[in-house]
Structure formats: structure tokens, C-alpha cells
Amino acid sequence: MSAKKNIIFSDLDGTLLDHYSYQFTAANQTLQQLSAVDIPVILNTSKTLAELEVIRKTLNLNTPFIIENGAAVFIPIDTFKVQPADTEVIGEYWVKSFCLPRQHWLDLLAKHCQKFHDEYHGFSTLSTEALCQITGLDLVQAEQAKQRQYGEPVQWLGDENTKKAFVEHLVELGASVVQGGRFIHIGDYCDKGQALIWLTEQYREDFDNQAVYTIALGDGENDTPMLEAADIAVQIRSPVHNFPPLYRQYNTIQTKLYGPEGWAEAIQQLLAKQLLSHTI
Q1: pTM metric for this prediction
Q2: What pLDDT, in 10s, does the model give residues 206-236?
Q3: Residues 90 and 108 reside in one and the same domain
Q4: Residues marked as catalytic
Q5: Strand order, beta sheet including 152-156
Q6: How far, in Å, CA of 57 to CA of 97, rounded?
Q7: What beta strand segments (E) does 124-224 contain?
């Protein structure tokens, strides 16, 4: 048995899922290979619990996952030998929350951001039909996306200078503001990297302190903290924006292919020996 345990943390939209079609076909074989060699794939995304519960079934994943840009970690009960400290039991999960609830940020926007009222649309005010038009999701998927627990994404309608003033105002009010693929995410000071670090430590303890090696894959600005925190950072090429800048200068890969094709390309290169040891 190897003394090193690999864990993969992955964004969804534009990374494991195609930016336009939300399909993952190109990565399916690699996902099966990872399952065969017991390498966990941890979804680390801006999506909601309602969305993740459906997507995990589609991807055939039963591993922990991270929702709403690091707001909370959901761990299926009995994933580890012992329930992690500072988690609560919610349904079939052990849950570690890092954020104040969504209502706090809705109240903040309503009370302190009136001068920007006409410059954005929040998820809470968008109709399901409007969200479908913006994202390409179907009605059921859009309704799941609206079931947020911790933060509020907004669609920016104004110019860049006003956007900068809006962001600065929110930061002064104590909010964290992160640019995602399509939306600005407003919430607490948590991120995908903080959640990665915490969950990795839970795995390390469960593995009796064996070495844990983390690989993170993402395409957007909101993935940067996760990419900075992992042992290896894989930036997935996007059809709609350039690679976001990273501070780190080591163990960084930028894929040639887009979305799930790039995802599979990178994983196959990094873990070729382990994946080839099992035939799917």
C-alpha cells in the first residue's frame, strides 16, 4: 500500500462540466477509473446542496462535497471512522459550516445598497425562467440553483466603474465578493481553499496521518483559493475567459483542452500509473 493518498478537488461549471452544455461525457471514463482505485473526487463548487445532490448521483459519486464557494462541507455520515469535530448532523450528512446564512446578506443588500439597486439582479429576485435564460439550465435545475443557504449571487448589469464601487462598498460592509463564471457571489469570508484545507485534514486524520496529496482543478476566479491551497493546481482552459492569475509558481498545469476534456487530460497525465493499474 502506498504511503501517499491522493484526493481530487474539482470545480463543476466550465471544469468537470462543459461551460455550455453542462455535460461531462469526456470525463466519464476517468471518473470510473478514479473510483476503481479509491481516489476520492470532491466537488468544490458555487452550486447549492439541492444541485449537488442531483449531480452527485449523475456522476456516481458518494464522496464529501463543498457547496456555495466554500460555505459548507457536506460529508456523508460514516465516511470517516469518527464524526469530525465542529460538525452537526443534518439529514444524512455531517456538516461543517463556515458562513453566516443567506438572509444576513440579503438584509445587507436591501438596507445598505439601495443606490446600486438598478445595477444588478440577485438570485432571490430572478424568476426561474429568467435564470434559465441567463444560465442555459432547465426549469428544474434553475429552481435547484435558487435554493441557496449561505450567499447571494448577483448578475451585474452596470458598467465596470460602478461595479468596482459596488464591490468596494460591500467589502466595507463586511462582505466577501467573488467573481464567478457568470455571477458575482456575495457572502462571508470563506472560500474553496479554506474548505479544501479543512476537509483534507479530516482525511489525513482518518488515514492515521498518512501523507495526503491534493490535486485541485478549476477554471474561474472563484477557484483561485482552492488552486492556491492544493499540492497541484490544474487550471482548465475556458472558452469565455483567460486563465485567472495565480500567485504560486510551482506544480501548476494549464490544460490545452476545454472543460471535461481538459479535466480528463490533466488527471490522466498526473495519475497515469494508478489509473492504468485498473481496467474499467
Answers
A1: 0.88
A2: 998 889 999 999 999 889 999 999 999 999 9
A3: no
A4: 11
A5: 120-122, 152-156, 184-187, 176-179
A6: 23
A7: 152-156, 176-179, 184-187, 211-218
